[in-house]
Write a structure and sequence with these properties.
By secondary structure, the protein is an alpha+beta fold. It contains 15 helices and 7 strands. The protein binds a DNA duplex (11 and 11 nucleotides) through residues 1-10, 41-47, 50, 75-81, 84, 96, 98-101, 117-118, 142, 145, 149, 154-155, 191-192, 233-236, 289-294, 338-340. Belongs to the Nth/MutY family.
DNA sequence: CACCCGTGGAC
DNA sequence: TGTCCAAGGGT
């Protein structure tokens, strides 16, 4: 959980996770779906899949791996995690190199090289390996990480209080050369700008047959259509509202609806337009979700349908419940959604609330006139 | 080696 | 408001 994720973000997830799956055995018996739901909102969802795979691997093996090289073979465990478990849990004398250690080491040895380059990474591991305290490798590794996380911070290092400042070559250099500072280490490497994607998102709500008219759109029994994303790639295997990527030049309302209609037709095996009465279809707004490598602009629309009975039946028959589900409002709010999809849902909900308020005002005014 | 894969807190 | 990046790993 802590891979590329800060402790404060993780703690609650960790508690819930460990309460539900306290042992490797119990986790190995869980389903991918359960694991996804528990992980929802934490990001880097492959970690959840790998953790489940890893647990199964270990059960298959029959014993928990106790050395870094054995741990390294488990799914989702790389050099860092293998070293951390081996040293902290089993006292193996091996180093760990995470983002914090990279900062500490690159300053201690005044390493000007690109910290992402493999040769430099190799050097970090070698240098840290020379320093590990053989009697307390776990404590040493945690101390190195803690030093990097606190005193030896990225922008404001507390060199005056640092217990190893007398060994720090970056500090020495900075005192000799005014143009060079401790914070120049590790070298900053420019990263690629995120690409821009555009998506049409349609929150499809199936109204009850009895519920005619917009006044019923807040009915708790109304169903939302959710789709399971492909098992590979971005947000793999997670649930979302029907979405289609559109090219940058075709983000206008007409093109978006055209693409969405095509998608829904294929998805539900029916022609939505012909087999339903559209109670409401309206643009809700757009939301820009920032991933680490993608800037995704989502154009959100709300569509409330009243399907003909036979079309509803077709939907049920045509739907593969492992890829497509109709879920009521309560369940949507309690289920595991990605943070972007949750944002979209809240947007739509606010939109409906506003609509309902406007409508009740209209009703009140009408009633007022009637009484006169 | 370059790129893919989320999220939110800090500054 | 924008930028950075965290207890990284896989392909």
């Amino acid at each position: 959980m802590l891979q590329q994720t800060r402790v404060p973000v993780v703690v609650d997830y960790y508690s819930r996770w460990m309460a539900r799956w306290p042992t490797v055995h119990s986790l190995a018996a869980a389903t991918q779906e359960e694991v996804n739901e528990m992980w929802a909102g934490l990001g880097y969802y492959r970690r959840a899949r790998f953790l489940l795979e890893g647990a199964k691997q270990i059960i298959e093996k029959g014993e928990f791996p106790r050395t870094a090289s054995e741990l390294r073979r488990v799914r989702g465990i790389g050099d860092y995690t293998a070293g951390a478990i081996a040293s902290i849990a089993f006292n193996e004398v091996v180093p760990v190199v995470d983002g914090n250690v990279v900062r500490v080491i690159s300053r201690l040895y005044a390493i000007p090289d690109n910290p992402k380059e493999s040769s430099t990474v190799k050097r970090f591991w070698e240098l840290t390996g020379e320093l590990v305290d053989p009697s307390r490798p776990g404590d040493f590794n945690q101390a190195m990480m803690e030093l990097g996380a606190t005193l030896c911070s990225k922008t404001k290092p507390g060199c005056s209080q640092c217990p190893v400042s007398s060994h720090c070559q970056a500090l020495t250099l900075s005192s000799q050369n005014t143009s060079l500072q401790v914070t120049d280490f590790p070298r900053v490497v420019p990263k690629a700008k995120p690409r821009c994607d555009f998506a049409a998102v349609c929150v499809v709500q199936i109204a009850h047959a009895l519920d005619q008219g917009v006044t019923c759109t807040m009915d708790m029994d109304n169903l939302f259509l959710l789709i399971k994303r492909p098992e590979e790639g971005l947000l793999a295997g997670l649930w979302e509202f029907p979405s289609v990527l559109v090219s940058e030049g075709k983000t206008d309302a007409m093109n978006r609806r055209k693409e969405m209609d095509k998608y829904l037709r294929q998805l539900l095996s029916i022609d939505v337009k012909r087999r339903s009465s559209v109670i409401l279809r309206e643009d809700v707004g757009q939301y820009v979700h920032i991933f680490s490598h993608i800037r995704l602009t989502m154009f959100v629309e709300l569509m409330i349908l009243n399907l003909e009975d036979d079309a509803k039946q077709l939907c049920k028959e045509g739907q593969d419940s492992t890829k497509l589900r109709f879920i009521d409002e309560n369940a949507v709010e309690s289920m595991g959604l990605t943070s972007g999809i949750r944002k979209v849902y809240n947007m739509v909900k606010a939109f409906k609330d506003k609509r309902l308020k406007e409508q009740s005002q209209v009703t009140t005014r009408k009633r007022g006139r009637g009484l006169k």
